[in-house]
Amino acid sequence: MKKFFEFEALGTNYKKETVAGLTTFLSMAYILFVNPSILSAAGMDGNAVFVATALAAAIGSLLMGVIAKYPIALAPGMGLNAFFAFSVVLGMGVPWQTALSGVLASGLIFIVLTLTGVREKIINAIPAELKYAVGAGIGLFITFIGFQGAGIIRADEATLVALGDISSGNALLAIFGVVLTVVLMVRGINGAIFIGMVATAIVGMLTNLVHVPTAVVSSVPSLAPTFGAAFTNFGDIFTIQMLVVILTFLFVDFFDTAGTLVAVANQAGLMKDNKLPRAGKALFADSSATVVGSILGTSTTTSYIESSAGVAAGGRSGFTSVVTAGLFVLAIFFSPLLGVVTSAVTAPALIIVGILMVSSLGKIEWQRFEVAVPAFLTIIAMPLTYSIATGIAIGFIFYPITMIAKGRAKEINPIMYGLFVIFVLYFIFLV
After folding, report:
1. Does the global pTM surpass 0.90?
2. Among 307, 328, 254, 322, which Cα is nearest to 56's?
3. How far apart are CA 96 and CA 225, in angstroms?
4. How far apart are CA 233 and CA 230, in angstroms?
5. What are phi and psi of 365, to 5 degrees?
6. Mind telling me which residue stretches traverse the membrane in this protein (predicted)?
7. Measured between alpha carbons, how far is 133 from 259 in angstroms, rounded to an integer?
C-alpha cells in the first residue's frame, strides 16, 4: 500500500493521510444535507438523494485516489445542483428525470474529451500566471463562503455585503474556531485544521449552538426513487433547450474541476514544470464520477476545493481520498452524527485554507501589467460573482487581449485563443 501510493517519495505516512482524509470529509460533509435539500425542491426524493450523494462522493473519491492518486475528494457540486433544481427543473419546466439525463450526457462527453487527451491539453495550455490566479481566487472565494456561512459577513442592500452580527452565537463559535486553528497552525501542530474543527464542534454542543445527536446509527433510506432515472427520458435530451443545459453542465464542471485540480495540486506541491502529472487520469476519474452520480440520482459530481483542507492537514497521496471515500460510505449508516458539522464548524477550516491558498499571489509577476490584468480579474471575479467558472472566464478573455497589446501574441498557446472565443460566446448566450 505504501509503495502504491508512494508515501516515501511524498514524505507522508498513514497517520497524516488518515487525518487529512478525515479533515477533507468533515470540510465537505455539509453536502450530504445541502444537496438533498436543494434537489428535493425539484421534486426528487430527499432520502434517496442523500444516499445517492454519499455513494457518488464515495465512488468519485475512490476513483480519484486509486486511479489518479491525488488527495482530491469528489461530491455533487454546489452551484451545479442549484442550476439543476432552480433553473432547469423549476425555471425551464424540465422533468428532473430528463435533467438527470442531461447530467449523464455531459459526463459521457467529458469522458470522451478526457480519453482523447483534449481536456488534459487544455489544462496544460493555461499559463502559469493564470493557474496561480485561479488558486488565489478560489482561496478568496472559499474564505468568503466561510465568513458568510458563519454569519460574520451578511448581505446589505446599500453595500451588497457588510459585517454581520458578530455577537451572535454562530459567529462567535466560528471566530473561536478561527483563533484556535490559527494558534495551532502558528505553533506547527500537525492536523491543526482538523483539531480546530473537532474542538469547535465540541464547544458548539456544550453551548447548545450545535445540535447534539440523539442517535448514532440510522437505517439506510432506499435509493429506488432516483436510481436509474437518468435513463428514463434520455431520448428527450435531443432538443435545443436541453443541448444548452448539457453545455452549461459541461462548461461549469469543466472549469470548476480544472481550477480545483490546479489549485489543490499547487498547494500540495504536486505540479511539475507548470503541468499536472497524471492529469488525464484525474480528469477521467472526475468525469466517470459524474456518470455514476447521475445514474444513482444526483446532479453533477465534481472535484471539491474543500480537499485543500485535507492537503493543509498533511494529505499528499491518493490514500487521503480513499479515506474520505470510506467515510462517505460510513456516513450512510451514521448520518445522525453529521448534524454537528454546521457552517460555523466548517467556517474556520474554509477561512484558514483560503489564507493558505492566496500564497500563490506571490508567484505572479505583478509588475508586468499584461499579466497582472487577467490575473487580478480572475482572482477578484470569483468571490464577487460567487462563481469559480465566471472568474476563470473573465481572466481568460483578457489574457489574449493584454498579451497581444503587449506584442507577445506568439507566446500564446493556440488553445488559449480557442478558449477566448468559447468564453465570449458563453457570456453572450449562456449567462
Report:
1. no
2. 328
3. 12
4. 7
5. -80, 80
6. 20-42, 48-67, 74-93, 99-118, 130-154, 166-186, 193-217, 237-265, 326-359, 371-399, 411-429
7. 10
**Side chain identity at residue 291, one-letter code:** V
The amino acid that residue 179 corresponds to is V
Angle at alpha carbon of residue 10, lines to 9 and 12, rounded to 5°: 115
Q: What is the pLDDT of residues 119-157, one digit of tens each?
A: 767 777 888 888 889 888 888 988 898 898 889 999 998
Q: Is pLDDT above 70 for 88?
A: yes
Backbone angles phi, psi at 252, to 5 degrees: -65, -45
Residues 6+ apart with CB under 8 A from 4: none
Burial of 215 (0-12, 13-18, 19+ CB in 10 A): exposed
CA dihedral 385, 389, 391, 395 (to 10 degrees): -150
Please state the φ and ψ torsions of residue 274, each to the nearest 5 degrees.
Answer: 65, 20
3-state secondary structure (DSSP) of residue 196: helix
3-state secondary structure of 3: coil
Eight-class DSSP state of 361: G
**Looking at the chain, how many residues does it have?**
431
**Burial classification of residue 396, based on how many CB atoms lie within 10 Å of its CB (0-12 exposed, 13-18 middle, 19 or more buried):** buried
- Torsion angle defined by CA atoms of residues 250, 252, 254 and 255, in that order, rounded to the nearest 10 degrees: 160
Rounded to an integer, what distance in angstroms lies between the CA atom of residue 150 and that of residue 356? 19
**Residue ranges per domain, the chain?**
7-139+216-337, 365-431
Q: 356-376 burial, b for 16+ CB within 10 Å, e for fewer?
A: bbbebbeebeeeeebbbbbbb
pLDDT attached to residue 190: 67
